[in-house]
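Help!! Second protein's tokens look totally different from the first
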Amino acid sequence: NELRDTTLFLPFDFAEQFDLCISEIMADPSPPVLLPETEYIEIHNRSLTAYNLRNWQLVVGAKKIVLPPYHMAAGSYLLICDSSFTAQFQGVPAVGVHWPSSFLPNSGSSILLYNAFGDLIFQSEYDPDYAQNEAKSNGGWSLERIDLENLCAHAELWQASKNPSGGTPGYENSVQV
């Protein structure tokens, strides 16, 4: 049984640095505004390629989250949160994971996103002072990246959400320039 004149196309795309970025961070959900009272991270696929996020990792300090299989379309947004809260974000593209307690320190930290091969795809710092609004830096408001094309780690590229719910998880940010 010989296979003749057959071409198999096996698509396999490797994500490159900055193809995906961290676009929103809810490190301090208390007191809640109108969103569920839980930490979350939103990522945005900036590329023209869809990726399977299976075995990708989010790392903060010594803690890490391994992502389950999820087909993330080009140009899309994805909310990552504790699996016990995904149902509370109705209509939001979300992946539930085992979220370690206080994964995102309220005082700020560095978040790293690695693909399944261990390549660093994105790194971001955050700090409550990035809110640029003292009233919103005390919890309940997410930090949103204001420019998804300028991916430097500067504090001025983050701002507290302007959305009345306290954030825009799974959707385009309210503070984009």
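Here's the second one for comparison:
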Amino acid sequence: DNPWITNTDWYTQNGQGQIIHPAGTNWTDVADLNYDSQAMRAAMISEMQYWVADVGIDGYRVDAADFVPFDFWQQAIPAVRASTTNPLLMLAEGARTDHYAAGFDMTYGWDLYSTVQSVFNSSASATQLAQTRASEFASVPPGKSILQFTTNHDESAFDETPVELFGGLEASLAAYAVTVAYGGSPLVYGSQEIGVTDNIPFFTKDPINWNTGQATEDWYAALLGARAEHPALRQGGLNDQSTNDVAMLLRQHGSDQVLMLVNTRDSAKQVSIPAGWQGAWDDLMGGSSQTLGSIRTLQPYEVIVLGNTIVV
């Protein structure tokens, strides 16, 4: 239903000359663009520049970016950036590592998401979290990032919302804390901050009802506030001492330290605290100061976020 459709050569066609939807998908509401058409490419870039230069948006989240040729992004992104003096965020919903070389700032962290599910739902060891994190970031150039999440529009619409997916409200919070702990750029998908349990359709209007659901938005605000205030959580080095059941890691950037302990199980778990981590800490989730001894017992799905400043 877009006027572009009159330019039939801008679209992929079958042997009978009929415009088709993207091959290998069930997206029958979408006409597949023909990236061999230089005229289509020029028109697309012009449209992208319009929304940036004339309307003033501050970036693009590109749906299904993996389906678009690398050389188009390589052509389009510099042209779009050149249309404004404002900084832009270019987010690719995709997993191809060449998106960074094409000019994107961020891709989706599907691997960590999958590992978090395995840890919480299949009793996989929490030690796998650091392994996945190292593997994901191995292909991320300096200055770029990965979008980390416990749900997004596809997952909440077609799979399950975090409360259902991870085994309850407290489990969903613990899973989110894990994604923040291991770095990248955390996503809050609208509705997860109040613990919605029903699927969230995105082909129909479904506004958030702030008077229902679980009121956990203050918890999310506290965790992400700690991340904003502490560079250790955004760019600090990682000292991972996780056990089979508890994600336990220290992030440090300069004199700033943040220690996170997350019980990934629905039963209490005891951990040994390394000697260098013992002592007084500030509770970054709004509680009182804490003193860690050699042993700590975490309640089911308990999240502990502690911080301090050291002399370096």
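Reply: Different proteins will give different token patterns, so don't panic. The CA atoms of residues 10 and 37 lie 6 Å apart.
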